[in-house]
């Protein structure tokens, strides 16, 4: 008894030191990681339940709402990588390059149930890296103009239609704007939203061969200048003070924006919340056309998965017509499959002109993803902030920014 | 904070004269040491060495690290952003340390005169110290809100123009300094108060008899006698300021236009956002060298100071 | 006159220190509508506890809270046990390599935590601890500061106590457990509160090693909650959640501030 105190202490230390060395028990089911809002998870859950009912394989959902790609990389390093991962085309190259994902080619070749012809060629390209397909695509994501029909009707302005131009935008904007109260168009500092202006003016952020930044060239600058003028010169878009606490989705939903540029994923929320009539139109044409992004996301399998067969079953199920229809019905996605895209699941509900999302695909352009994509995106948001608020002229702000981006591109090559 | 704790001094004496060992003394000693040695060795010493090794590699967490020699260090020194980050850090440290010391010393002097309710004041000053920086950052984000925030409302009362505290490149860093000073002020007040209370009252009484005025007494007596405390507070604050992270992460994310990217935030970004772990480790070692120098400076100066006091 | 001046300065300082907390509590009791009224209002009208209810029901706040309590309790116990035992050994027992070892431990105090971040993550990942309590607890179960604090304390133990222990024929453990440790209550309290606050407020490490809400502690959870409001910031709801993170630390401090302040003062003055 004299040593009991010490012994029990030491034993507990040893237990901590040794037992904890073993990895925690693995559950029998598949692990499946995804990002997305709570609403999105509510759409996903019944689909996963249907899979478990059909296959008998339980699925453990790992929901990572923020910084998904970063957390995924930490999980790879921690050897806790999920069997199946939802992945976007922006994050795919970094992981694919390092052999994190399984090449799906051989699996598809052996499996007559999956036909690549069922998917849009553009989304398959977005899920491909160096000639190998790494993900079965869920959706195609691109940008359109959401507009408030009520404001257009009140201002007696015809709705925007395919083929409308930046000049048209400048022409109708004053009639849609009531200073301090209502604005013609939204303004977001997010590169995703302003890149179409740059592209449609004939410019780009980085050169096609990813060797240097091209934002300082005339076409790109013209696009940026047009965008920043919408807000700071013409006041057709709200300033930060005027927007106050609200983001653009909320301003649009509360009837304070006549138009704003955004993606399909806003639709479920708008269907629920918006009481006025609204619709979508293509992005306006510039000197180089009306060019928006064609991004995609899909499901990949971990190369290190211990249950590749079960993982493939899940990915197949998720990519099936029935599953894609479920996602599509909610309004959340532009489906990766033409069969679903041409069905009522996509076209029947509001917005009335949902086919606009499909019409713009041929002119679309995938986002260029260099190795330092995250770092470059961060610089784009940070360095241009003061230009968007008008503190620094955009032409001045892009100079150090472009230098930095070029340096990052060189460093990576 | 690890470095901050180094302020606790090391007595050099060893216990007792020669004596007989207790039964099984050495064996017991190792048993008692085992848990602490295991944890500290594995999770502190080993990583410090590991970090040094990683700083010579290129590593993105997905593949194995690749040895590239001094390339991370040379790349850092060639990167203009590195110098911007260093300048930001120095600006933050200087503003923070000076404002903190002036305010804390002022409050400590006011507290150090047998007033009623000292304990209450001291507790009030200490509240920010014990709360989480993440939590208070959220409160300050609300205070800094350009439209509804308390600070701009107060400026409005005084008919002053509103300030974009966190989104104006000129104000973002000072805004972080304000939060940081507010957060740690109480800590330094307590340290100064301890230093002031250690000054024997005879000095002041003697000076009062000689007819020295308040300011004269402060500069001729209080300040010199407060020297060691001033040095301690100064160096502790400097070390703390070099390590600032939480507020940057919560309030500015290092922006706008990199105006608030300080060294530890950049280190974090490189390691866990851009996954350049070799570069991050090189940066960590550069930071370490600076802090090591400061700690060494503190120890030697204190030793000399104490020595002088004992001599005089 | 001088007193009036001092009081004014002190009051102003106290006001500046306390005002953000007042704003926190007041805002947390407002409705969302009131916080976007212009010009802004300061007093909640109507007064509502709805935000607290919402904070607990729409976010895993309770889970974060529980995780924080668990991690703090585990690391405080670990730090106390490991620190007291090692500190005692360094102060009172003789063994080969004592000064080298103590110097090594002391040296770790000079290394900023950020230096260890990357390899520590790699190590924890190797153990398979990413996104688990192990990652949050184990690396923090012992620390140089605790060892150092207890060594200081036990060095000051009167020699007579040790002599008495010898005469009674105690072995080192009995000397430690029956005689030395009971005198060390103030050191225990000081280290306990230091470690509690450090654990309760720590952010960077949990930010890196946690992915899921089930494991997150309050600061990381709070940061995630804040980031999740990217559409609109519901300030009163956010303030309610924030006050849940702040209030326990303040209570612990108020209850134990004597030990906390003494720990600080001793550290500062003795040097």
* Rg of chain C, nearest Å: 23 Å
- The overall pLDDT of chain A, averaged over residues, is 88
The residue fraction in helices of chain A comes out at 40-55%
CATH architecture of the domain at 60-218 and 242-270 in chain C: Orthogonal Bundle
Biggest beta-sheet profile of chain A: 6 strands, mixed
Helix content of chain C: over 70%
Structural class of chain C: mainly alpha
Shape of chain A: globular
Major sheet of chain C? none
What does this entry look like structurally?
The complex is a heterotrimer of chains A (413), B (312) and C (271). Chain A is of the alpha/beta class. Chain A has 20 helices and twelve strands. In chain A, the strands form three sheets. Chain A has a six-stranded mixed sheet with strand order 2-1-3-11-6-12. With 312 residues, chain B is an all-alpha fold. Chain B has one domain: MetI-like (MetI-like fold). Chain B has 13 helices and two strands. Chain B has a two-stranded antiparallel ribbon with strand order 1-2. In chain B, helix 10 packs antiparallel against helix 13 and helix 12 packs antiparallel against helix 13 (277-311). The longest helix of chain B is centred in the C-terminal third of the chain and has 35 residues, at 277-311. Chain B is globular. Chain C is mainly alpha-helical and 271 residues long. Chain C is built from 14 helices and no strands. In chain C, helix 4 (61-92) packs across helix 8 (144-155) and helix 4 (61-92) runs antiparallel to helix 11. The relative contact order of chain C is 0.14. Chains in contact: A-B, A-C, B-C.
